[in-house]
Design goal:
Length: 175
């Protein structure tokens, strides 16, 4: 984690107002798909047992988005929004991104009141410690570029593709 982080950024209110109109369930489905892909198999059995049946809610304050899910014993599954979750984690979009990129420590965000956990504090500590213990790739958008995914999943196909020009070659560099 870096010692310095970018200045806190909050999405403009009109952006949050538009995002708040999106239906919740598809977003929760996308999030749990990513979580299952990235870390569900790495979770220790004792953590899976603690998570079983727990209602977890992630709230992105500035985007006015919510993601609700549970661990069903096999995987994370999306759910309808909870009236009261076992654990609710709140932060702005930038702070969640910094956490995913491992550019910011959750304790620092917590003590600066930029990350809030409500509900079962023991469950919150289990989640935090489990994430800290996992070997997770840093969330790097270039890692998910279609060509990068193809190179990881089917390198023989990726080698058959012609080289693509760089972004700056296509659009020129900005002054």
């Amino acid at each position: 984690m870096t010692a310095t982080s970018p200045a806190p950024f909050t999405l403009p209110a009109p952006v949050g107002a538009v995002l708040a109109r999106l239906p919740a369930y598809p977003g929760s489905m996308l999030l749990v798909t990513a979580i299952n892909f990235a870390l569900a198999k790495q979770l220790p059995d004792d953590v899976k047992a603690i998570l079983h049946g727990k209602r977890i809610s992630i709230r992105v304050r500035d985007a006015r988005l919510g993601f609700d899910f549970t661990w069903n014993g096999q995987r994370f599954a999306p759910s309808q929004p909870y009236a009261e979750a076992d654990l609710t984690i709140r932060a702005n979009a930038q702070d969640f991104l910094l956490l995913a990129q491992r550019r910011q420590d959750p304790d620092t965000l917590f003590f600066n009141r930029r990350l809030v956990m409500e509900g079962d504090t023991e469950l919150g500590l289990v989640v935090k410690n489990a994430l800290d213990a996992l070997e997770l790739p840093v969330l790097d958008p270039s890692h998910w570029h279609p060509r990068a995914v193809l190179e990881r999943k089917a390198p023989h196909l990726a080698r058959q593709l012609p080289a693509l020009p760089s972004f700056s070659a296509l659009f020129g560099s900005r002054p």
